[in-house]
Each structure stands twice: as C-alpha cells, then as structure tokens.
Amino acid sequence: MAIEVRPHGRVGAEILGIDLAEGLDDEAVALVRSVFADHGVVFFRDQTLTEQQHIAFARQIGQININRFFAAHPDFPEIALVVKEPDQKDNIGGGWHTDHSYDAEPALGSILVARELPPEGGATSFASMYAAYDALPDHLRARIDGASAVHSAKHVFGSKPTAYASTQDTRGGRIGNSAAADVLEDVIHPVVITHPLSGKRALYVNPGFTIGIVGLPAEESTALLLELYAHCVNPAFHSVFEWQPGSIALWDNRATWHFAHNDYHGHRREMHRITIEGEALH
Ligand code: SIN
C-alpha cells in the first residue's frame, strides 16, 4: 500500500501505508516528524505493536521520559499505564491538558497505543494551539504578548491535590507518586511559544497544569486564563479521535491539548503511553 497522509478534521493527520511493527526507515521517520510538526497529532490505524515495538518506535522519535506519576507497565517501565477499570468513575486525562507542562523542559509528545477498548465511547479529543493562537482576538493577543505563566504538578499529583480555580480535573485514576510532585519546583514558560519544530506560534497554557500568569494578581490571572481557555474550547480548533483496536496516536504536547472522554462507565479501557523528552520552550 502506498503511503498516504490524510488530514483528520481540524487537528491531526493519519498516516496510512506504514507498518510500525517493522520499524521505520529514515524516510519514514522524516515523514512522521514532518506530519507531527505540521498537524500536531499523527494517527495510525490497524497496527499490531508489541510493547517492545512500541518502545522501539518511541526511540525513533526521541528519548523516552519515564513517567513519575503514573503506574508503569510491570515489565516495561518506559510504558505508563492509562487504565480505567469498570468500577472506576474517574478516568485519567478527563479534562483538557497537555502532558508535562510542569517540567522545565516539557515533553515533546506522547505515543498512546490502544490495548483494550470499551464497546463504545472512550474517544480522545485534540485541540490545536496553533489554530487557537491564530484566531485570538487582538485585545487578548495584546494582553499575553511577552507574558509568562507558572505551571505546576502539585495540585494534580501532590499529596494535597486541589482543584485549581481554572482547571478541569485531570487526576482521576492515577496511581500517584505524590512525594515526587510535592518537591517538584513550579516552572515558568512563555504563554505563547515559538514551536521548536514548525517555527509557528502556539498558545502554551493549559487548564490542567497552568496555575497563574506571572506578575498578575491572582484574580486577574485566573480571569485571563479562563478567558484564554474559553477561547480554546471552541470546537473550531478540535477533532475527535475514535479509537479502534490497533489505533495509535502520537501527539505534540507543545502544539495541542488533549482530553480523554469518560463516557464508558462499567467497561475497561487500557492504553499504553510512552512520553518523549522535549526541550526548553521560548
Ligand atoms: C492522557 O491524557 O494521556 C490519556 C489520553 C487518553 O487516554 O485518551
């Protein structure tokens, strides 16, 4: 089958004609990287990756970041388990967020492999932070020009989790390592970044982990973040990915938000996630 890139609604693109289990040659790696940079999420269907092949694919994209807060696969510490059991109410990632913005060098992206799916539901929504930035009204763009924001893991993974005023709860179902989160220093990133791969401008705050705008009083900071989030949740910037057995998504944490739908109570969903190291953002 010839390789084809098929845009997936407003964010993301599917690559057809690649069998990830075989490993990628240099040309295929370059294609995946360029689709990733242009579209924010790369989707694959009908794959049959073992855990070792998942790890091998991740290593072709970058260095693996071992997650500190999620339960790890018992045999492969590189793989974080994203599981919701039939008797669980909350899910992991059930609110808009981007992974690891609480790190000084936030993760480049994550590769999620579907291992067990509910009969219906359990999709993941993605939002393009390129599109959200491009569509910002001038008055909002002027307010964030040159601004920085504080990002934290404490309210989500720490020993005293709190629902931060502007967050949606992304805690559900995590088996945390709260001591590590308690001592993790909060970090500061620009509110608008120049994406390291595409060179495009992207909005880089998120409801999961951003806790304030530097230099603004708390109330004003929360109000501004809420205004930005209200703008970003416009479906004009979103697409929904319906998982099937063999589906894989590689998303860009610097250019997108994501959100795991929690609409399949009573059923099990198991996904395997590998996160790829990133770099400081400017
Ligand atoms: C996540 O937020 O990493 C999980 C996304 C999903 O399970 O769809």
List the helices and strands and how they pair.
Elements: E1 4-7, E2 13-16, H1 26-39, E3 41-44, H2 51-61, E4 64-65, E5 80-84, E6 109-116, E7 124-128, H3 129-134, H4 138-144, E8 148-151, H5 154-157, H6 178-183, E9 187-190, E10 192-194, E11 201-203, E12 210-213, H7 218-232, E13 238-241, E14 248-252, E15 256-260, E16 269-276
The site of succinic acid has 10 residues, from strand 15 and strand 16.
Structural summary, described in words:
The protein is an alpha+beta fold. The chain has a single domain (4-276), classed as Clavaminate synthase-like (Double-stranded beta-helix, 4-Layer Sandwich), CATH 3.60.130. Helices cover 22% and strands 26% of the residues. It has helices spanning 26-39, 51-61, 129-134, 138-144, 154-157, 178-183, 218-232, and strands at residues 4-7, 13-16, 41-44, 64-65, 80-84, 109-116, 124-128, 148-151, 187-190, 192-194, 201-203, 210-213, 238-241, 248-252, 256-260, 269-276. Strands 1, 2, 3, 4, 5, 6, 14 and 16 form an 8-stranded mixed beta sheet that branches. A 3-stranded antiparallel beta sheet has the order 13-7-15. A 3-stranded antiparallel beta sheet has the order 9-8-12. Residues 82, 92-93, 99, 112, 124, 258, 260, 271, 273 line the site of succinic acid.
Describe, in short, the structure shown.
With 282 residues, this protein is α+β, with helices and mostly antiparallel strands.
